[in-house]
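# step 3/5: fold
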Amino acid sequence: MMIEPISDQSQYKCPVNCKVVGAILDRIGDKWAVMVVETLSDGPMRFNAIMREIGGVSHRMLTLTLRGLERDGLVSRKAWPTIPPKVEYALTDLGRSLIAPLETLGQWAIENRLEVVNARIRYDKAKEDC
């Protein structure tokens, strides 16, 4: 069953669509998903190359992340029937459309990092004083 696009922007605020948006943001807001999209933005890569490029991600977590991104249509997986198997991952058109928004969000995070850190310090101090 295919879902129709939302034509009325006010529909984004209804509870059903908030859940849909939340589910998608859970996927694309995950730190490993962001790192995979960034890594694949330069072109297709094999699993171990992605793992080396990202660093710090476990084999299992990268596998789960790639499967989730593939399921959501953001990443494609191409396997060749060779020994050992060769598998390559690439961003789909939909995945590539995510690069610019993630770069914008990343830039915002960099520009506002100190303000966020200071807000956390003030919040934590106020909680300690209670």
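# step 4/5: annotate
The longest strand covers residues 75-80.
# step 5/5: archive (pending)
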